[in-house]
Each structure stands twice: as C-alpha cells, then as structure tokens.
Specification:
Rossmann fold; alpha/beta; 266 residues; single chain; binds nicotinamide-adenine-dinucleotide
C-alpha cells in the first residue's frame, strides 16, 4: 500500500491532461496521492477527467490553457500554487500530430507543431522551474519513438520530438545542482484520441490499427496506463538518480533491423 501513496503531499501539473496519455498520468498520480492540476485547452474532457479523479477519492482541478501561449502557462503555474500551495511534478504531454514533408507542410502548420510540441515545454518549464527549485521537483516530458526513428511525411512532428530530447537534456544539466531531475518518455503507438485522429485520415481506419499492432514486436499497441506507469516512476523517488534520460516504452518497435514488421510468432 505504501507505494500507492508515494506522491502524498506532492502537487503535480499535467499538460494535455484532459485526454489520452495525459489523462492517464493525471489519474495515476492522483491515485498515488498527488494533488493534480490538469492543464489543457479541451475543457469538457478536462472537467470530466477532473470529476473522475475527485469522485474516486483523489484531488484534482482543471485550468483551461493553451500551452503554446506563455501567459497561459504562467497563469497555470500560478493556479497550481493558488489551489495547492506548491509544485513538485510537471508532466508535459500536450501535443499534436500533423503529416507532411518539408515541401507539403505549410509554414503555419510547422509553427503550430513546434509551438505546441516543443515551445510549450519551454514556456511551462520557464514558468515552473522557479517553484520546482523550492521543492527539488521533477519534470517528465513526453516525446516519442519519432525522436529516434521516423517515417515518410512526418517532418514537423519528428523534428519537434527530436528537439524535445535536446531540451530535456539541457534542462537536466542546467538544473541538476538545484536538485531538479528532468527526463522524458518515448512511447511507441498508444491507443488515444491522437491515434484515432491519425486512423481517421485513412479510408480504412481499422487497417491503421492492424498495421500499428503488427509493427510492434509485442504484437499490440500500448494502453495509456502503460505509459503513465513509466511517467510515475520517473516522477517518483524510485528514480532519484535518473536525470537527462529518455525511456523508450515502445513494445520493441525500434528493435528490428530494417524496420521489419512482425508477421508471425516465428
Ligand atoms: N498516441 C501515441 O501513439 C503517441 C505516441 C508517442 C508519443 N505521443 C505523445 O504523447 C503526448 C500525448 O499524446 P496523446 O496520444 O495522449 O494525444 P491526445 O491527442 O489523445 O491528447 C493530447 C492532449 O493535449 C491537449 N492539447 C493539444 N494541444 C494543446 C494546447 N495547445 N494547449 C493545451 N492542451 C493541448 C489536447 O487537448 C489533448 O487533451 C503527445 O505529446 C504525443 O505526441 C503519443
């Protein structure tokens, strides 16, 4: 039971916490005792995640914010302090997926991807770090397998996720002496609204799910809870000597030489 309360007296701020991976992170941290501020632009889903946490014995609040806007990020950090009095954990998950090559990606879309997937982390951390210094807090960023390998037509997303590893390492070294640990998690395919959106772009969405399953040597895609578990580990004292790391949580997706898909057990 002790491990279930490892975040007692801790306050977590979770961006992208309304849906998908961020929602799973919010629920898990709250279940283990953290008071959680969900920071997201999706209000209906955010309030629903908040209600679910509060109705199952946890403590959560929601703030509507666009994390690609510095003032919104500053206000969200202030809300965490106003509501809960301190800040210990920042989990950055807000992100979008867009498709295109350098030629086909409009500049506006390139900027949108960079601003939401990358600059938001700069904004959130810029706002949060002065307070994390007081608590010797920790930051966990959500990157992707696409920080290591890529596919055709995902130029902006891949670039943003590669850069997020650089930002994670930079912050890890800059704030190590303040006792702040900074890490990131790189998932393979996860069953979330983001994947549903990607599948909906295909005339046969089911075939996208099948292809994703077959790409992973474990033969399936991840449940968001499996990613949240690793975020919780990195945010906890159990990871007290881990900083500047990127944990792959990809069901073996990056293992095969030549990107060989799984076709059978043999
Ligand atoms: N689903 C996957 O297969 C997968 C794989 C690897 C990495 N990731 C990464 O994990 C993170 C979460 O992905 P997900 O699959 O849960 O996505 P999702 O679309 O299901 O959820 C993303 C959340 O971020 C919020 N958000 C987006 N832009 C925002 C903004 N400007 N301001 C505030 N909130 C914003 C959305 O409202 C949503 O609640 C993303 O960074 C994504 O790139 C996802």
């Amino acid at each position: 039971m002790e491990s279930q309360l490892e975040f007692e007296n801790k306050v977590a701020m979770v961006t992208g916490g309304s849906m998908g991976i961020g929602s799973a992170v919010s629920k898990l941290l709250a279940k283990r005792g953290a008071r959680v501020l969900i920071v997201d632009r999706a209000q209906v889903e955010g309030l629903e995640t908040t209600r679910m946490i509060n109705s199952t014995g946890g403590v959560a609040a929601f703030v509507k914010a666009d994390v690609s806007n510095l003032e919104d990020c500053q206000a969200a950090v202030q809300k965490a302090l106003d509501f809960f009095g301190r800040l210990d954990i920042v989990s950055n998950n807000a992100g979008i997926q867009r498709y295109g090559t350098v030629e086909s990606t409009p500049e506006k879309e390139w900027d949108e991807v960079m601003n939401i997937n990358l600059k938001s982390v700069f904004y959130v951390c810029k706002s949060a770090i002065p307070h994390l210094k007081k608590t010797k807090g920790t930051i966990v960023n959500m990157t992707s397998v696409q920080a290591f390998a890529t596919q055709r037509g995902v130029a902006a997303y891949t670039t943003s996720k590669h850069a997020l590893i650089g930002l994670t390492k930079s912050m890890a070294i800059d704030y190590a002496y303040d006792g702040i640990r900074v890490n990131c998690v790189a998932p393979g395919t996860v069953d979330t609204p983001m994947l549903q959106y990607a599948a909906s772009l295909d005339p046969n969405p089911e075939s996208v799910y099948e292809a994703c399953k077959n790409m992973h040597p474990l033969g399936r895609i991840a449940n968001p809870d499996e990613i949240a578990e690793v975020v919780a580990f990195l945010a906890s004292e159990r990871a007290s000597f881990v900083t500047g790391a990127c944990y792959l949580v990809d069901g073996g997706l990056l293992l095969p030489i030549g990107g060989e898909p799984k076709t059978s057990k043999d």
